[in-house]
Design a protein that fits this description.
This protein is mainly α. The chain contains 7 helices and 6 strands, in the order H-E-H-E-H-E-E-H-H-H-H-E-E.
């Protein structure tokens, strides 16, 4: 991991934006910090959360992709970091271009659309890494409130 992190630091421009679901936790695991290693962390879970009248509800990337992009991961396909990165960028681009009214509509659609159990629920620890599900967390890291 140390060798991979050192290589990443050499390749990652300091003006880079790291984008992903709960990307701050990924950066923490890798020992990356703003602004020393990158300019910005963009947490999609915070962008795509929705208020249900009592609390914020956070959605999996697959759920957001289904509602916002019409993209559905085929059943029984494996987790794919490269594919997830492409979906993350598509979601961010869609969000940034969307008018506020469209964002509000999709937040309501996210709440109303039945959800499949997220990857983090199905696999609380993947390749030795806690996926950050509050109820199933094994690492003790802080969560959004």
């Amino acid at each position: 991991l140390d060798e991979a992190t050192a290589m990443l630091r050499r390749c990652l421009p300091t003006n880079a934006a790291l984008v992903g679901t709960n990307v701050g936790q990924d950066a923490k695991w890798l020992g990356l910090a703003c602004p020393a290693d990158c300019a910005l962390l963009v947490d999609l879970s915070a962008l795509f959360r929705a208020w249900d009248g009592q609390r914020y509800v956070y959605f999996s990337q697959d759920h957001c992709a289904k509602v916002w992009l019409g993209a559905v991961r085929p059943p029984d396909t494996s987790h794919d970091a490269v594919g997830d990165a492409a979906v993350s960028m598509a979601l961010l681009g869609n969000y940034m271009r969307a008018p506020d009214s469209f964002k509000a509509q999709n937040q309501q659609r996210c709440l109303a659309t039945p959800r499949e159990p997220s990857f983090a629920v199905r696999h609380p620890v993947f390749e030795g890494v806690c996926q950050g599900n509050r109820r199933l967390c094994k690492c003790g890291a802080p969560h959004f409130s």
